[in-house]
Amino acid sequence: MTATAPVAVVIGAGDATGGAIARRFAREGFTLCVTRRNADSLSELVNQIEADGGKAHAFGCDARSEEEMVGLFEHIEREIGPIEVAIFNIGANVRFGITETTARVYRKVWEMAGFAGFLTGREAARVMLPRGKGTIIFTGATASLRGGSGFSAFAGAKFALRALAQSMARELGPQGIHVAHPIIDGAIDTAFIRDNFPERYALKDQDGILNPDHIADQYWALHAQPRDSWTHELDLRPWMETF
């Protein structure tokens, strides 16, 4: 690993998908810059990457704050290296009936899954455009395609993120920047699914829920695509999932 190693930024490097993506890119020689609201919660991930011979930096960052996001990208470019990949992976999944959905909840979910995605994409584009290359990936969900009962806030935010990704792909693709929107259409092997949906988690041994490491493989594949055959959108789901 050298000072000139390419940098991958993962906004929302959680314990499952985000962490798996970070580890996958680290194995390919990238220096990882990973963020969560609390940098201390990233210590285990950073230790894993470094134990495997990689290099990682943890940042506590509110991705909804324009000032913090501008500062984050400026710091990484100045102190760590050129950002080649930016991945937005904040979840913000909540479920409330429409009459129980407060303005505060709706606004916060949109800020986390929509507005924060805009800030990430804009700042990534600013540093990538002068170099004429880079990859920006926004994590989508089932709610990106259809709004389910009780998911008005989440679906509204994920629809907005999908529209952002489409608009950015059309604008930035001809300028050498690959913008992709993978849709995770199924339950993921996480503590949340294990604790709250045990019947679904029981399908793990039958490959009935998504393995975060396998999701991460597809993110790497998106970045590695030659530009004459770029994918903008793909969907990932277990073989037994209906759609």
UniProtKB/TrEMBL annotation:
It holds the Pfam family adh_short. It comes from the Bacteria. InterPro entries: NAD(P)-bd_dom_sf, SDR_fam. This is Short-chain dehydrogenase. It comes from Halopseudomonas aestusnigri. The lineage of its organism: Bacteria, Pseudomonadati, Pseudomonadota, Gammaproteobacteria, Pseudomonadales.
